[in-house]
Records
---
Amino acid sequence: MSDPQVAVAMLLILLLAIFLGFPVAFTLMALGVAFGYYAYFDPGRMWRAYQRAVEDGADAWTLTEHWIGGFFNNRIFDLFVNQTYSVISNDVLTAIPLFLFMGYIVERSNIIERLFSTLYIATRRVPGSMAVAALITCTLFATATGIVGAVVTLMGLLAFPAMLKARYDVRYASGVICAGGTLGILIPPSILLIVYGATAGVSVVRMYAAALFPGLLLAGLYLIYVVAKAVLQPQVAPKPTQDEVGHYSVLQISWMLLTSFVPLAVLILAVLGAILFGFATPSEAAAIGALGGVVLAAAYRALTWQRLKESVYLTARTTAMVCWLFVGSATFASVFAYLGGQQLISDFVTGLDMSPLMFLIVAQIIIFILGWPLEWTEIIVIFVPIFLPLLAHFQIDPLFFGVLVAVNLQTAFLSPPMAMSAYYLKGISPPHVQLSDIFRGMMPYMLIVILCMVIIYIFPQIVYGLPNLIYGG
């Protein structure tokens, strides 16, 4: 087999291992080292000391020692160590554990329950008021955490039973929770954007500015759909009676919003504003957010030693997963490119003579399909780098491509049969809620995501407007 064919076999084995359920990070590292050993195999260099020992007539122990040393004298081990060091010392990735900690500590405070109740009361006259309140709460909470599973699970425990009790349609209610919970990987400060920026070599600050309006656009489209469906089909979201909502004055509602909505919104805006306007780097702003999360939890009397310990543990576990994914991906990609796999793919794609639009459509379809079995982290660090070298040929801005990918990856959590949002919600739902109902409830939101991508392509200023305004063209 030629080296490019070996590279293709390497990629196919990776896909097979992923579908069989092997841990992705360690599979990447194992394949990178194994195929790298073949790629960098050089007997003359590796066993040079052994040959000299043979010529000098060394004893058997010395010969064995030199032979074993030669076996591990392959350049792949140097590459693996260098890739590990470069990933761990990457300043951009420092923001990940801090944002994760902010999300986990906010999740464990009492603010989300109060926020949902307050928004429901404030929007009680809006059609589908409880779904609207759930969607806005999901958006804020998802933005603060960026952890889809945490948002869907917590909102599934708080809002979903309340909507079912209020006689909301199961599909309507489940779709709102699942779709709203995924927005955290798109709306800044998003961990996905940090990972993409580090992978593509794009400024995280510009990525945040570019993704803000598309994220708000998608949330707005979701909101329009929720209200429109409640207006056109009132039976899916019955209007609450005055007794069900309760009697509250404008002053009371204002105070409830001030003590629930405002603190979390201020925290998010402070972190995001510090990044966008250059007052702090993403890592510094993330540190501010982590501190702000602790202060919020303390203010709501939810800061206990057990919750703090859980937040630190979950932060360390998730950060380790992301960092080892980066190490494995970097090692795998280096060997894959050295064997000629990247060039083979580039030659194949450029030989198809596609237009930039056609390339974008094909790339997004592939990413959409990959979203069925894979998490967004795996797609970003393993498969997106395959597309990145092709962007220059098709004259596509990596910034614009990254925003489209971030929007597209919303479908990774919404597309059956592996829609993780549905399984998160099913895991904490009443027994009568069927997985098929949750899947059907999510389908309209997948179409909305596609519509959002079309709008972004037709009006690219949605992506470029804010970065150009703040940082210049």
---
Amino acid sequence: MPSPRTPTVAVVGLGYIGLPTAAVLASVGVQVTGVDVKQSTVDAVNAGELPFVEPDLGTVLAGAVSQGTLTASLDVPHADTYIVAVPTPFKEGKVPDLSYIEEATRSIAAKLTGGELVILESTSPPGATEFVAQTVMETRPDLTLEPDLPNTVYFAHCPERVLPGRIMIELRTNDRIIGSVNGDAGERARDLYQLFCEGEMLLTDARTAEMAKLTENAFRDVNIAFANELSLIADRVGVDVWELIELSNHHPRVNILQPGPGVGGHCIAVDPWFIVSSAPEESRMIRSAREINDEKPEYVLNQVVPRAQRFKQPRIAVLGLAFKPDIDDLRESPAMHIADELARRLPEGEIMAVEPHIDELPSSLTAHGNVVLTEFEAAMSAADLVLLLVDHTIFKNADPSALTSAQIFDTRGAWRSI
């Protein structure tokens, strides 16, 4: 008997989710084409090089490219399965922006012949996967959603549920939620993910799968908002919030998260708004949590700027720009917002940005003219004020008393002993 044909997969979008997914599929023998709109990303992947920082991804990527199971292209090929992993930001008014999904869908539609599976991995508002299916049907009226016909195209939603910095581990170990739109799309998606994922496959409908991912991140956002609001209350009544949380968490049924300068990233800072936009009258707590976390950077600025203004030309060491520790991801980062506002509000000062995971500052910061990417120890020794925004390991392991005599604003509780 002839051996079964190697399945082909096209992953559209080679960002923080798409590229690891493409690499791990290719590592188990699937023939994968990664598609991206950036020539620099395509070139990097084809050279077996990482376009961003993610532990363990580089080894898997290089291996897949060298074995010939992973290539990258600007053009969408024909494939058995398409995985859409493009951004889903929001527009003005916190309304979901599905333009990237629509563009990817239309590029896929032109390649379909019938029998393919289209999986939306991008975190999306309820109904987005149905929108993908409808867009294909409108673009290609020769195709159908009716199952078991030669010209049927199948659609599913399988949201990513991984943590930056642990993506390569969690892609293989986390349970997967798979939502089906038509026919046996869910079972088809399950069979694909089981090639590399050891977690449980949880099948449901597409809308429930979409809401499940949003619910997970909204739950975390609400809990972080509680911690952030508690930090404001503790400041007002003169209590150390870090000690307060530590003591409270000794209760067996209490697990308060840690406060910070806000919430960032492409998930928690964005996804709850998708729920709010879908059910604005019912999402009162979720909206309030999002507003509390969105307002925290301004609270930090109000603590730092007046003190900086006491100096004629203040030098501020801003420690961390990423949205979480030990990665280079700046998306929706409250630290980025705070650094940007410090530069704008203190034009006579120097903002020494310390971010060990990037080689150059984004243009939004360099445009101010008073923001300089600076080494950690150099910034600490030169600073009038030190603002710890991200608890990167290099910062947590340092002894600040040996590096600076400046006033320190620790928004992460990493240096509580000072």
